[in-house]
C-alpha cells in the first residue's frame, strides 16, 4: 500500500466554489513506466457527471489538469413515447419534445440524439440561443427526462435513440413528426368547410341570379324555408345541422390521421352515426308527409325568423322547443368532443352512445306527434282589395291561402277588431265539413283608416295560430322629399310632379286648397308607374293644402303641399 492521499472531486466550472467530495486514495508505482507514480482511488457514491479533480499531498493541494467524466454504469433506456407524435412550432419549423427513460446522466454535452437511417443529430453544446438545436436535462428528474429543443424539420415516421458518452446507445423508440402544428388542424378544417360552404353559396346565387345584398337572406331561405308557409322549417334545420356537424367532424378526423398521424387511409365511420343521420333524414321526410296529409302549421309573422323553429303559427309549442333545444345541445356536444381530442390520438370519431339514439328518437316522435295532433294553421298566400265604399265606411278584402277559419278574429295594426267590425264569408273550401277554408272574403266596417297607406293584417284562428300579411300588397304611395312639396299660389294653374309607387292610368286626384271646405278635381298625367304630373288650381291662400290620389279600387295616397304666395 502506497502513501495515503486525499482526492477531491468538484462539480461546475473551475471558478465555481461548489463543495467538494473527498475520496481516499494512495500513491502507487506505475508498472508500465518505471520510476513513475500513480494516484489510485475508488469512486464510491459518485453520481454520473463531470468533475474537476485535485489531490491533497502532505497538506498541499494540487489541481489535476482536465476533468473527470463519470458515466452511468448501466445501459441507457428510452421509454415509449405516448403519444409518439410531435408537432412543429410552425409549418416547416422545428420540433421541441421531451424524452423519458433511465441513466441519461446529467451533462447534455455527453448526450447524442440518433435517428435511425439518418445518424447523429447535430446539437449545440448548450442551449444558449432560443433557436439552437440542443438537449436539456430536467433538474427535478436528473438522468430521467431530456428535452430536445429545435430539432430540424423532418416529416413522417422515424425511430430515435440516445447515446451517452461512450456507453452503448439506448433502445430505439418510434416517433412521428407532424406536418403541421396542432392548432393548424382546426384552422385547415374550418378553411375546407368554409370553401365547401362558399361553393354551395355560389351555386345558389348563380341559380337564383341574386346579388350580394340579398345573398344572406336568400341562402337561409333556400336551405331552411318552407315555401308553403314562408317559415323556417325545424326538420330542415336539424337535418342541415347534423349533416354539417358530421362533415366537419369527418374532415377534422381525416386531417388528423393524414397530416399528423401519417395514416393515409379512409377513416372509419363510428358506430351509431349512420343510424343517427338516418333518423335525421327520416324525421324530415316524415314531417313533409305529415304536412301533406294533415296540413301545414300557421305561417305566423309575415317574415321568417328563428322563432319559426320552435313555434307554430306564432305560438311557442313545447315539443318543437324540446326538439330544437336537444338538437342544438347534441350537435355542439358531438363537435365539442371531437375538437377537445388531441389530433395525435384521435383515430376515430367518438361513438354514438347506446342511449343517445333512443333519446333522439323520442324527441323526434314528440315533434312529429305534435304535428299530427295539432290543427293546421292559417297561411295567407295572396290578398286583394275587392271594394272600398267611402260612403258606407267599409272595405272588403279577399284572402287566399290555407286553413283560413270562418271563426277567426282579426287585428289591424295590432289593434283587435270587435266581432261586429269584421264579417267573414267563404268563397272556397276544400272540406265543407270543416271551418278551415282556402279562400275567404272579409268585410271591415269603420274602415276609413285602412283606405290610405299600408297596414298589417293578422288573422287568428280559434286555436291561437296566426298568419300576418300587409295590405294592400301593391299600395299606392307618394314620396315626399326632405324639403316637402310646395307650389306657387295665386296662379291660374300649377303642375306638380309626384314620385311614388303603383301609379296607373286609372289614378284620379283631388286638391283641397288652404281654407277650402271641399276638394276640387285635379288633372293627372301618368308618366310611369313611379311618376305622374298633377295639374290643379292652388288657390290664393298661403299654407298647407291637401293632395289626394285615388286608385281604381278606392284606395288613397295623401300628401300635404305647401302653397307659397309671393
Brief characterization of the structure:
This protein has 566 residues and is α+β, with helices and mostly antiparallel strands. β4 and β5 form a beta hairpin. The model has no long low-confidence stretch (mean pLDDT 87).
Q: How many domains, in number, for the residues?
A: 5
Unreliable spans are: none
Mean pLDDT over the full residue set: 87
Q: In terms of quaternary structure, what is this? A: single chain
Residue share in helix: 10-25%
Order of strands, main sheet, comes to 28-30-33-32-31-34-35-29
Determine Rg (CA atoms, Å).
Answer: 44 Å
User: Count of helical segments?
Assistant: 6
Class per helix and strand makeup: alpha+beta
Shape annotation: elongated
Number of extended strands = 35
Biggest pleated sheet: 8 strands, mixed
Task: Please write out the topology.
Layout lengths: L2 E8 L9 E10 L7 E5 L7 E9 L2 E4 L4 E3 L6 E2 L6 E2 L8 E8 L8 E5 L3 E2 L13 E4 L7 E7 L4 E9 L8 E5 L4 H27 L6 H10 E2 L4 E2 L1 H27 L12 H22 L16 E2 L2 E2 L1 H23 L15 H18 L5 E11 L4 E12 L3 E4 L2 E2 L5 E7 L7 E10 L9 E6 L5 E6 L5 E3 L5 E4 L5 E8 L6 E5 L7 E9 L2 E6 L6 E8 L5 E9 L2
